[in-house]
Design a protein that fits this description.
The chain is an alpha/beta fold and 431 residues long. The chain has helices at residues 113-119, 197-200, 204-216, 239-250, 262-271, 284-291, 308-314, 337-342, 357-376, 393-430; strands at 2-4, 16-24, 33-40, 60-66, 86-93, 101-109, 136-145, 167-171, 180-184, 188-190, 230-233, 254-259, 275-278, 297-302, 316-324, 346-349, 384-389. Strand 2 (16-24) and strand 3 (33-40) form a beta hairpin.
Length: 431
């Protein structure tokens, strides 16, 4: 059973109703996180005064659903759903809150690359997870499972327990593109008082991922990233990249970042990077060796993979760790294993989606202890760019796919240039 909400809305609660889509980070065109958020009826009026929240939870809700296309492609395979396959339905059953879950009335949610892959049928949800897209949400708790322990979260300095009416953000097990989302209570965090719902909807997926890969994971010898260590972060102006730069900087890690233009490199410096490397005009292996005196960095955070893998290993210090969280550059590569053994390197892949709730809860607890104070005093900042209405979910996915294609195209061009050079080299040798 669940405790139903029957209180008057707090003055702090935002008066946000319709769904919107947000792109997080600055206005850079490549490898950005795009965000979905449930939008504002009045953009200038943020706070409610005495609006009453519903006393009952509806049986059905609005949610963005994927409508599979008909027919097959030129190879006879079922067609992959395009962004246009995303439609808004008002007859989706409202999720039932489980014993150890809370039901959140969603006011903000996020679009991430896994959502795009799931829409295409390439990344199905794990067993027991919602098949509705959306891995991060922010909103108001409207029901609490009967096994959620009191004192499990502090929603504010004056409230010492997770309760109906609390403003929370959460890492969801799917279901974010909807009006209501059921989430394990341990994956919820209180929204800082200085943060609005739209911004809160852009936090969970990125912050959970960055903290887990920077500070919870270790190399094979159990050595964690420490103050005074160094890190190379690829995609420095992406949502992951900009968050990782700020978080590492806040814990006294020397940060180097890569980006694809001088403008983006400047942004990396503004985020807190010690040096930024334009990978289009500079060899990041040479630059890191120069910057570290040949020592290398203790950690590389990489969402590119493919052709970056051997180069990432070259820039690692002895005992260093490579954290792979994406494969935008491809899923295949070739490396020198003797180099890995001789320098005692660790190559680790990481995804959070299939991890159990205990792992995600441990990340949430550490974020609250170590990172939430940085959000409260604005040492770390979250940047919002573009907002779409929930009915325009297809446009948001189209925009994200466009930026991903730009990235993939850049690597394809590089590969073509390498092939041309090799062909010319062999022709010269043959002649």
């Amino acid at each position: 059973s669940a405790r139903r909400y029957s209180q008057t809305e707090n003055k702090r609660l935002a008066i946000m109703r319709a769904a919107t889509i947000i792109r997080k980070s600055l206005s850079f065109p490549k490898r950005l996180h795009h965000r979905v958020s449930k939008g504002i009826r009045n953009q200038t009026r943020r706070l409610a005064t005495s609006t009453a929240i519903e006393t009952t939870i509806p049986e059905s809700m609005r949610a963005v659903v994927v409508t599979p296309p008909e027919g097959v492609d030129e190879k006879g395979r079922p067609r992959r759903p395009s962004p246009d396959a995303l439609t808004l339905s008002s007859t989706v059953p409202t999720p039932k809150v489980g014993p150890e879950e809370v039901l959140i009335k969603v006011e903000a949610a996020g679009i991430n690359r896994p959502d795009v892959l799931q829409r295409m049928g390439l990344y199905p949800p794990p067993p027991g997870h919602s098949d509705i897209l959306g891995l991060e949400v922010a909103g108001t708790i409207v029901a609490v499972g009967d096994k959620v322990p009191p004192g499990s979260i502090q929603s504010s300095p004056s409230s010492s327990y997770l309760e109906i009416g609390a403003r929370v953000l959460a890492l969801a097990n799917g279901g974010g593109y909807s009006e209501y989302c059921a989430v394990p209570y341990g994956q919820c965090l209180p929204i800082p008082e200085n943060m609005n719902m739209i911004t809160a909807g852009c936090v969970a997926e990125t912050y959970f991922t960055v903290w887990h890969n920077l500070f919870q994971q270790s190399n094979i010898f159990g050595e964690h990233l420490q103050r005074g260590d160094s890190i190379l972060i690829h995609g420095g102006t992406s949502g992951i990249g900009s968050t990782a730069i700020q978080m590492a900087k806040a814990f006294d890690i020397t940060v180097y970042a890569s980006a694809g233009s001088q403008e983006k490199c400047k942004a990396c410096l503004d985020f807190g990077a010690e040096k930024a490397i334009n990978y289009k005009t500079e060899d990041f292996v040479e630059r890191i060796n120069e910057l570290t005196g040949g020592k290398g960095v203790n950690l590389v955070l990489d969402m590119v993979s493919g052709p970056y893998l051997p180069k990432n290993l070259e820039v690692l210090a002895v005992g260093g760790r490579l954290a792979i969280i994406g494969s935008l550059g491809g899923v295949r590569s070739e490396i020198n294993m003797r180099n890995v053994m001789r320098r005692r390197l660790t190559i680790a892949g990481s995804t959070l989606r299939a991890r159990n709730s205990a792992v995600k809860a441990s990340i949430a607890a550490e974020l609250r202890e170590h990172v939430w104070p940085l959000l409260k005093d604005e040492t770390m900042k979250i940047r919002i760019d573009t907002v779409f209405d929930m009915s325009e979910a297809s446009k948001a996915h189209s925009l994200m796919v466009y930026h991903l294609l730009l990235h993939d195209t850049a690597f394809i061009i590089i590969i073509i240039i390498i092939i041309i050079i090799l062909l010319q080299y062999h022709r010269v040798r043959l002649s």
